[in-house]
Task: structure prediction
Amino acid sequence: MNGLVNWVEIQKRLMRMPAMAEKDPGKFWGKTAFMYDKMSKLETDYTINQLDTLILAPTDSVLDVGCGPGRLAVPIAKRVARVTAIDASDEMLRYCMKNAQEQGITNITPKVLDWSKAVVGEYIEKHDVVIASRSVGLQDLIKLNSAANKYVFILSFANSPSLKEVQMSFFEGISEEKLPDVRMNRMFGYNIMFNILYDLGIDPNLKVVKDGFTRKYDSRQDAYDDLRQLDEVTREREPIFRKNVDKYLLEQPDGGVRLLRETKTYIMWWEPQESDIGLL
Ligand SMILES: C[S@@+](CC[C@H](N)C(=O)[O-])C[C@H]1O[C@@H](n2cnc3c(N)ncnc32)[C@H](O)[C@@H]1O
Result:
């Protein structure tokens, strides 16, 4: 159906990735793997809110499109029969499989695959549940729809700081380079995905859940030493870095500190529609 507004075009313009990411997504994203893995571990306590919203059966096969270090793929694997974790970056998949191994999980199949080139039925078979979280999968909802038997779930940040924004806030004023503005704008939030789906003839379900990044440290020094690894800080800029981090450290009664940065994530899902999707 042609909607009143061309939401697909709006999304295309907003989600445009740097040229390097489009040319070689594996290389581009591989460079962020260490940082992303570390940030997603700070998110573990809150990720449960996303997991508990997913509709999963113990017999399900799940496809995680752009799985990264397995933030979702690894805990999902504990709840289903098998997970296919695809990513353009072998470095991300390496983290994913390391995280799986550390938790004794053996039912994840990793696949290096550029989803934008993947053809469902050729490179990748249908799965019961398809998940695309903060990933390239969000760019083509029809393709996700065609890969699922039971449900498609899409997830991203909901009008609240993204992982990138949280990470960058620790390093503000540290580099001479002006950091890109990655703040969320409510005008261009999950309303776009909702409207694209609506115009495809789908009635999506929506839930917004609390998300966040947290960790308890024995001391401020431990927090600085841990979070400093998320980027680079010169000796001269160390005081700026500490002041940035201090904004998010809460004193604990036992003498330690807790990093706390809350945000929100949306989860949108639907039952896949027939092949005439979009022509309704
Ligand atoms: C922001 S991370 C999200 C990771 C994970 N889904 C999550 O929610 O934590 C985006 C992931 O998508 C992967 N990716 C980017 N472009 C891709 C493509 N064309 N095909 C497959 N994966 C891609 C990246 O390598 C990265 O691991």
